[in-house]
Amino acid sequence: MRNFLKNISIILLLININFCITSNAGITTSNIPLNHKNITYIATDTVQKSWWNFDIGILGFPLEEPPIDHAIQELLSKHKGDALINIRYYTKKSIFLFMTRNTLVVKADIVKIENTK
Q1: 43 and 85 in contact (C-beta within 8 Å)?
Q2: What 3-state DSSP class applies to 8?
Q3: Which of 15, 37, 60, 96 could form a cystine bridge with 100, CB 3.0-4.6 A?
Q4: Is 8 a domain residue?
């Protein structure tokens, strides 16, 4: 019984050492200008793209920059859209002992341009 309580205490301690931090990185209305009166478009779908990496160390600096432009182009080509609107992106950081997982999430609405007059 004593060994069991010791194991449970260690597991609870390890769970409490794990930290998760989320921060809003930004928001923008669209990736191309769509505010002209002669452009009409329809929103087709809401999509999301994630990217992450691991760091090892006390401070946990990312090893590389997140590929935001590549993620936007991939979303457009994958869903056959003309533009993205309501683009929101945020970061999450999970820390467990000396390892850090950095995650960037990009969410947006895909639009199809119907016509331009």
Answers
A1: yes
A2: helix
A3: 60
A4: no
Which pTM was predicted?
Answer: 0.65
Is residue 110 situated within a structural domain? yes
- CB of 46 within 8 A of CB of 105? no
- What distance in Å separates the CA atoms of residue 47 and residue 74, rounded to the nearest whole number? 11
Burial call 84-107: b when 16+ CB within 10 Å, e when fewer: bbebebebebbbeeeebebbbbbb
Q: Please check whether residue 26 lies inside any domain of the structure.
A: yes
Range of the domain at 105: 20-116
Asked whether residue 79 is domain-assigned, the answer is yes
- For the chain, 117 residues long, give each residue's pLDDT as a single digit of tens: 778 888 877 776 666 555 666 677 778 788 887 777 677 778 888 888 888 777 776 665 666 777 778 888 888 888 888 888 888 888 888 777 677 777 888 888 898 888 765
CATH code of the domain in which 91 resides: 3.30.110
Quote the number of domains for the chain: 1
Q: What are the strands of the beta sheet with 83-96, ordered from one edge?
A: 19-30, 83-96, 99-116, 39-56
